[in-house]
Amino acid sequence: MQVSLHQLGAHLQRGLKTLYTVHGDEPLLQQEALDTIRQLARAQGYTERTSHTVMGAHFDWSEVLASGGSLSLFADRQIVEIRIPSGKPGKDGSAALQQLAEGAPGNDSTLTLVSLPRLDKATKSSAWFMALDNNGVTVQVDPVERAALPQWIAQRLSRQGQRVEAGEAGQRTLQFFADRVEGNLLAAHQEIQKLGLLYPAGDGTALTFEQVEAAVLNVARYDVFKLSEAVLGGQPLRVQRMLDGLQAEGEAEVLVHYALAEDIRALKRVKEAMAQGKPLPMALREQRIWGAREKLFERVLPRVSEAALVRLLHSAHLVDGIVKGIKHPDWPSSPWAALQQLAQKTCALCAQATARN
């Protein structure tokens, strides 16, 4: 039986089943779905809990099968959780899952929770997954689409009694928030919780853009985005210090490259819009460039050529390959050295354009 994430709450109100399979590639939403099921289960007397993480082909499935049939002297009901990070239980696991699934409907003393990553069509057609689906409830956790992210953030703020300003100002705030956490709902969730601590609900005052900007940017995790401001601001020494710090802290090269490349792409898109006759403020608004970043774009774009941005975008493409292990004769083989070179090339271009401006 398949239930969407949005239907899960209503489904649980009608009664708890004994087998749930939750699969998807959004960790926050998957964890919240499992927590919702666990909370109801504890209220219904499922006081004992065992957990198994399937790692590798030599995992001992006999322990999982045994735990489903064994209760301690202090519990009448238990939760057995099975995590399969790879999404591939193997031959023994397939047989074990089918056995567990077929025995679940008549076993009211055990609630079985199976968590899986996002599954392809072939896996969903496998015998073991079909057994889980036919004998229990499967919940597919889909990612929040980029266009829906601002509304998702607004709903999460509302849950803790907060809201942004009405109208265009509020939409601008939500878009800024979404841009900073795009693709990472866990980060968004943490920042929303932080806003709840910084600006407790109660007086009915809406959150301003400045409050959200200061809260979201004032955290070490977003140093990679502050790097963007240093590059666009034409500050080579600061760029060097920040890249050294990010490397020392173990930041992922791919995230640093994403931040640099996204700025280059945005510069080129706005420049193209200007060439088509759009005013700079309108072009910036369409590309969701606001706040401090907007001012930097306004300083750089009037004096930078589209040809220079094309060359810079080509450099970003080459560095993307280097970060992924593809060497190029004209660039350093080290990902961090290549990122340094790309950042400084972009920084120099911005500094020259600002000086001319």
Description:
The protein is built from 17 helices and 6 strands. The chain has helices at 8-13, 27-43, 61-67, 90-103, 121-124, 127-135, 149-159, 167-181, 185-198, 209-217, 223-232, 236-248, 253-275, 280-286, 291-300, 306-323, 335-356; strands at residues 2-4, 19-24, 46-53, 77-83, 110-116, 137-141. It has a 6-stranded parallel β-sheet, sandwiched between helices. The longest helix is centred in the last third of the chain and has 23 residues, at 253-275.
Give me a quick take on this structure.
This protein is α/β, with parallel strands linked by helices.
Keywords:
six-stranded parallel sheet, globular, Helicase, Ruva Protein, domain 3, alpha/beta, 3 domains, Zinc Finger, Delta Prime, domain 3, 357 residues, 17 helices, 6 strands, single chain, Rossmann fold
CATH homologous superfamily grouping of the largest domain: P-loop containing nucleotide triphosphate hydrolases
Going by CATH, the architecture of the largest domain would be: 3-Layer(aba) Sandwich
Number of domains: 3
Strand content: 5-15%
What is the molecular shape? globular
What is the tally of beta strands?
A: 6
Fold blueprint:
Blueprint: E1 2-4, H1 8-13, E2 19-24, H2 27-43, E3 46-53, H3 61-67, E4 77-83, H4 90-103, E5 110-116, H5 121-124, H6 127-135, E6 137-141, H7 149-159, H8 167-181, H9 185-198, H10 209-217, H11 223-232, H12 236-248, H13 253-275, H14 280-286, H15 291-300, H16 306-323, H17 335-356
